[in-house]
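Figure S4 source data
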Amino acid sequence: MYTIPFLDLPPLRAALGSVTLPGSKSISNRILLMAALAEGRTEIHGLLDADDTQVMLAALRSLGVAWQRDGSVVSVQGMAGRVPQPQAELFLGNAGTAMRPLAAALALLAARDGGDYQLRGVARMHERPIGDLVDALRGFGCRVECLAQEGYPPLRLHGPSSLRLDQPVRVRGDVSSQFLTALLMALPLVATRDIVIEVEGELISKPYIDITLALLARFGVVVRREGWQRFTLPAGCRLRAPGVVHVEGDASAASYFIGLGSLAAQGEPLRIDGVGRDALQGDVRFADAAAAMGADIRLEPNALLVQRGRWPLRGIEWDCIAIPDAAMTLAVMALYADSPTLLTGIGSWRVKETDRIAAMATELRKLGAQVDEGDTWLRVHPLRDWRAASIHTYDDHRMAMCFSLAALNPLIASAPVPVRIQDPACVAKTYPEYFETFFGLVQADAADVPVVCVDGPTASGKGTLADEVARALGFWVLDSGALYRAAALAAQRTGIDWQDEAAVAALAATLPLRFLGGRVLLDGDDITDALRDEAIGLGASTVAALPSVRQALHALQLGFRRAPGLVADGRDMGTAIFPDAALKVFLTATAEQRAERRHKQLISKGIPTTMAGLLADLQARDARDKTRSASPLKPAEDAKRLDNSDLSIEASVQQVLAWWAETRPFTGKD
């Protein structure tokens, strides 16, 4: 219902734990297309579930390719080189790993068999050059039209036309390795004779070509390579399904956690499962660059163990031509070094999801860093006097993920600052769960974690408001009103007498509670409805009278304060539990309005009630809450008053978000 285009990261101070990487984007989309073009059925395990693979799967379905998902396994029935649909319009988002190889495959198939296909993407995709691939396909005799600007998508691929396969085709290698990959994957469709590809200029991102060649071999096509300049597909080669294939973890995504461990894992290494010493992906070599900066890294066959070694990190000069995507993380790590870091061989950054050299320089400077840039290089100087910055991500998933490491500035900054990541949802392109995973590994001082308190009387709507504000901010939520009921329910389920103060207190201190979307989870079990049981209500009253239980639940509530932030609702959140909260809201409405809301709620559930009875009950509760000796109901002195008698929930949420914006230290125009 509500969206807010940023995620605020508090100052972070440590990292601990383990992470299992999502599947590699590069491998996932290569395997999907090869499986679709091949003879037979391919069962794919560990496929990345993200925007780029979803647009590839949607495109394949539009072309008539049959595939199905069963849990984490995707099965693709290959079309044996014959497209079922002779016409299609495909939208490919900003996925270069879908646009380039699909363009090559459909251009060749349309030339051989006839067909008419249009390939489009988002606006940024239409700014990413594809002219070198188009020229190579035209060299084979394919009919390829650039529908807007020559050399850029959108494209129209149609036929039939006469293919010319007797002469080597030339393709530039210094703009993107995806052009060569696209040809290597598509040409087995028409390999009636040996087909030769010659690369002009220095081939960048050679490890990505290694991935392509290795996967082609899995699908039965062995390409002959002469250095990095000449590739020959043998006559008669064809793609054949390997049966079962596994996608290894994303080595580019591993770079963020390698960086995290290098900066903040002390005493015990951060474990990264999914890639290791035996990885196909060249981006695993990012570990070499991190080690050169001083990180302590151990490689296992399918895992990496990383922890801080040298501190501060060492400034380095590194040729990143083999790790163009992962190298972005080095630019942020460079802020924590003892001397400037020079990254070279990154000219391909200019034609990625955004102009990454310009974007990186701009956003690093917001933090206060000195940055020098050239056409193919970037120099980043160490930073000690950090500024609270709102990082623009340019709809680029890697910008959002690598700048999350800037929140670790307390490890080196003269004064810790928070960091705002704009449009955090852009990580869905390759790693939808990135921030959830990140927050599961990092640690912050409680005082640095922001809290929004929503206090108010019974039936004021504070629970609904807290849920929606938390969802908008990406924060955790605490429904304090459910705690005593949850303690009573947990005691009942474990056979503890509600009068056994010591036993109930011990249980309450470690209740594995989580609040999500208006539901209450106890150790993963949804107990929302069970908490409404009348007997549990009586039990809650019993345990609430036990001092040790109250003390235990007070400590439990404080434990909910963890990164990135917390929205807590109750009657004394802003006065007794979180008196230092960044924002305190006291929510109220007239007793008549609250009674009417409660009446509608109960009637909708088939529970008989009367307005007069509800109003009298609410007025009596208000009186008790205001006069009780322990934490009486009253607004905190610095609370914002919000009377929502005549406000919709949407309006109430927007008001709280506006107040929140006023508390943040970020200045200037985003």
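Figure S5 source data
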Amino acid sequence: MEKTLFKKIYNLLGRKDRHFFITLFLFSIFVSFMEIFGVAAIMPFISVATNFDLIKEKWYFNSIYDLFGFSDPVDFVIAFGVSLIGFYILRSVINYLYFYLLARFSKGRYYAIAMRLFEKYLDRSYRDYTASSKAELTKVLIAEGQNMMQVLSSLLFMMSEIVIVLVIYAILIWIDWKITLLITLFLLANFIVLFKTVSFRIKDAGREREQYERDFFKIVHGVLGNFKIIKLSDTKKSHMAKFRNAVDRFSKSKILYEALRELPRLYLEAVGFIIVISIILYYLYTTHSDVTAYLPVISVFILALYRLLPSFHRIFGAYNNILYNYRAVEQVHDQILYQSEDYGDEPIDFCRSIRLKNVSFWYTSGKKVLSNVDLEIRKGEKIGIIGESGSGKSTLVDILIGLYRPIEGEVLVDDTRLSESNIRSWRRKIGYIPQKIELMEGTVAQNVALDEVYDAERVKEVLRQARLLEFFENEHEGILTAIGEDGIKLSGGQRQRVAIARALYHDPEVLVLDEATSALDTETEQKIMTTIYDAGKKKTLIIVTHRLTTLNQCDSLYRCAHRHINKVQ
């Protein structure tokens, strides 16, 4: 797992982030040495404060004493103590700076990761997007992105603590390698027990957490998206039962993790006392006398364990946190490395016609939706496309407007082949009105322009064309009217007219209606179609519908049936 983890994190971090990560790691080593010095400096201070003779006996004390010209041992010890106080204040400041930088890196990366994820979502091909779970995409963006930051933070924390452990171990080996070896073997045996009993279970809990969190998001997304239907069908109990089950299992995985996370600390505290008592018993057994002579060595080991055991607990906790949230790294990594569209923006002119030449398309191999379709639409022409549900009408339109690429055949615009190099330019020439209108929470103007920045006069112009401006100006706050989430404050006809204004805002050359009026009553549909025909007088108009009355002003009519398209009139 470790190699895979480092490789995936390396792929997810940008160049600046990698440099920041390395700098932070080196800084953590510096902080670790300060921590070690902070523990090690106490014993010499106590020793020299209780025995002034050590100033002359120990060369390092004597050298400092002479270097600064001390004449009184008391002054030397006071200066030593004041220096230590200054050091501990400085150590606290540096530790705070380290934890600030650690938080800035780990939490700040969520912003960068979220931006990359969201951009990747927008760069997906339309076909891949429609095949994706919206709840899953939301979960990865919101929850897994933050969980991945937990992994980054734990990784840095674990690496810095490992440095502390290695340095302290080196000191202990230098003092008494036999006792250090025995302590190491004893600790290794206990770590194996912890890994077998705790880490494996935490890893399983992490997998369960990801699975139940996915169910959680899917249920919430599905229920809130169908709120009206659920209210009418009175199926609240059924959905509550599913939600309760997902929340219960998700909570249990979190509870298990939180409980298991504290177990190593309690276990290692007991191990620490056992080690201290065992060291004293070892010296008693080998010397058959009291341990006064070995008190300095025992004190060093006690101080070392005092610093080592919290480090072991932090390392173990960080490692378990990585195990618990490892699926987050995998999910974010997979989404960011997902194959995106890489289309060019070469100019493409539309002066004569759009032509489909021997176009075939399928979603599943061997099951064609369209087969060898030939179709020509002249500029300025109004055409209607009819057919039964599932006959391929919407797929045909998606190919015409450049959202789907033909698997066989080609789309020609004025004899220029629609390709990866020019498809973005072609899409900008399209105004699209779908059957299901998706509106965002915000103002009318923001929904028409699909942007926070918009041309107010252009918004008013297209709303006027859609015969909706007067309503908003007389009854509400004009183009600044708030329409609520998904346009809940608007009627079906008004939502449709907002969609028409949106399609007209960028003055497209081709206007496409994909079952855009199928959900409306006949009277409202006729009003909407009159608006569309008026607004699209100078545009190429492609209308997909199952109502022939909608197509009474079309120049040509085509029927989709049995994977083919045939001209009706």
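Strands lie at 353-364, 367-378, 382-387, 408-413, 416-417, 430-433, 510-514, 540-544, 556-561, 564-567. Residues 25 and 156 are 7 Å apart (CA to CA).
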